[in-house]
Structures are given as C-alpha cells and as structure tokens.
Amino acid sequence: MQYYYDDKEFGRLIVTTRHGMRHFTARWKGDVLHVNAPWGIGATDLAQMLDRNRQQVRQLKGQKPPVEFAIGQVINCFGRQVRLIEQSHVPGRMLFGRNGDMLTLALPQGMELDSDTGKRNVTHALQVLLEQEAKLVLLPFAQEVAQQVGVQPARWEVGRGMRKLGHCTPKRVIQLSRNLMFLPERLVRYIICHELAHLTHMNHSPEFHALVNTYVDGQEKVLEQELKHFNWPIPPL
Fold it and tell me: Of 3, 36, 133, 214, whose CB is crowded by the most CB atoms within 10 A?
C-alpha cells in the first residue's frame, strides 16, 4: 500500500507499507523522501519516527541541522574552547578574552543572535579569534604530524578558506585554513596528512590516495565521510 504524507520539514513523502516489515527505512529520490514502513502504521507513529530520526534523514540528503548561537554557549575547538558571553561595557562591540585554554567572545547586550546578520557577525568574530589561536596550536600540531610521517613542507601558513581547508603549492608551502580550528583532532590530522601527501604526489591519483591512507592508518575513506557529514558549529559562508 502506498500513500502520501506531508511533513513539516521534508514536505510531501511517499510512504509504502509492507507486510512483514518491523522497522522503518528511508531514502531520498531527488527531492522526494520515500519511506518504507510496517503494514498498518498510523500517522502518529510515522510522525514520531520522523521526529526521532530527523538528523539521520537530513544526512541522507546531505542536509545539516541549522546553526544556533546563544549566550553561555561553549564551542569546542581544536585545543581550545570558546564561550559566548554578553557585555554592556562597550556598546556595539564584540570583545575577546582568555583564561588559559578557555577563550571568550563577549557580545554586545541585546544582539540578535537568531538573525542572519547576527550569525554572520558572530561567525566572523570567531574566525578572527581562532586565526590567532591557529598559529599557536594548529601549526605546531601540523609540524608534529609531518615529523611522524617523515616529510616536511617548505613552510606552513594559516589561511582563511571554508571550502578549501588545506592547500599545498608547487613550492611546497602548505596552507591550513583557520577553520580547521572548528574540527576535532582526528579530522585536523586527516586534512594535514592529505596536504602532506601532496608533497609526493601533486594530484589525486590512486598513488596519492594510497599514500594518504598509509598516513592515516587505513582510515582515509572513513575520515573522508566523517568530514563530509561533519556538523560545523558555524553556518556556511
């Protein structure tokens, strides 16, 4: 039996119920979500299933949950944490602070964090803050990884790319984006190893990927997929 179901987020679904099924399955065909469900399932149970599995369904299509900022929020970064706080001493300004590895971004009182403009402003401030921290923790870590795999670039640099998180130039200069600071260590290491492999193969040939795979202990495909589906704490720019 097949019927339509209208969901608040995913739009019109095509639901197929089958005898003998015990679980739900879902897949996207273009922009339409197709759900297979046990025979006789009701709309209430279907709605509850979707609510429990929204993040997984988004990931099936490559969608990510929306990014939200809030006062008191702590953002875990590479080697650092950033706490968002509110300040009224300097109206209209965002201020940086530090207490050891805990950084603070003090936002002006009353700032609209749920607006697109507010999110862009907070994101830019976080990137500026973490660009300085990248020089302190990211580049030394990259140097350690290079020593472990036995290759060295001519120079390390901190870049600002969001789409291009790393880059190796023909002159053997490796640039790592400040946005790597938003990633967990295993993904930071993976991107560094990817760029280090370009010192040997300036392409994406099978030999290149084999070398990357060696550098990351056979986990290249796993890490590649994890990076692809990573939920960034900042919105795409």
Answer: 133
Rounded to whole angstroms, the Cα distance separating 176 from 168 reads 9
The two three-digit tokens of residue 63, written as one number: 């969608």
135-228 homologous superfamily: Metalloproteases ("zincins"), catalytic domain (3.30.2010.10)
pLDDT tens digit at each of 237 positions of the chain: 888 999 888 889 999 998 887 788 888 887 789 999 899 888 898 999 898 888 888 877 766 667 899 999 999 999 999 999 999 999 999 999 999 999 999 999 999 998 889 999 999 999 999 999 999 999 999 999 999 999 999 999 999 998 899 999 999 999 999 999 999 999 999 999 999 999 999 999 999 999 999 999 999 999 998 998 888 999 865
Instruction: Indicate the burial class of 82 (C-beta count within 10 angstroms; 0-12, 13-18, 19 or more).
Output: buried
Query: 30 and 13 in contact (C-beta within 8 Å)?
Result: no
Ranges of CATH 3.30.2010.10 domains, the chain: 135-228
With tokens 């507010």, the residue in question is 118
Q: Which residue has the tokens 């009182």?
A: 109
CA dihedral sign, ordered 32, 38, 42, 47: negative
CB 34, CB 12: distance < 8 Å: no
* Euclidean distance between CA atoms 58 and 76, whole angstroms: 23
- CA–centroid distance for 148 within its chain: 26
3-state secondary structure (DSSP) of residue 194:
helix
How far is Cα 95 from Cα 9, in angstroms, rounded to an integer? 37
